[in-house]
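Appendix B, record 7
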Amino acid sequence: MSRILEFLRAVIISPEMLAGCLPFVVSSYWPDPANFTAQQLASDTKWAFSIAAIPLGLLAATYASGSDILSPTGGKKALLDWPDYWKLKMRIVVAFGYCLLGFALTVCGVYFVAHQSPVWGGTLAIAGVLCAAAALASVALAKLTIREIIQE
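Structure tokens (predicted):
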């Protein structure tokens, strides 16, 4: 039961969720950034492929940082004996999921821009990139915090 609650807490109450929802709130009051993004995506297909590739690049960076955390070597092997190691592992897996969600959001955003819904498309594309970037940032901060704790 505690694992399910921890998973829900990691998914619902997270900086990734805040970063993913923020563009929708901003675009409801100030749609100019979403319109600008949609105009750029509609102007050239290179923009569409590029913005869809950003979350995949962030996924690769998140994987590199996450695998460094989850596959400790040297003095960091003590991390494997930590009682809350499973929480750390779950948070990193959730970060991978948020990067994939970011990719899906950007692809949906490109689709909406192509089908004449520019504000929604731009907002989805921005939300996808921010969601994946927040996932990478949270994993990178975890990596830095672990280095400080272990005094590496």
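Remarks on this record: The two ends are 35 Å apart (CA to CA). Residues 118-150 form the longest helix (33 residues).
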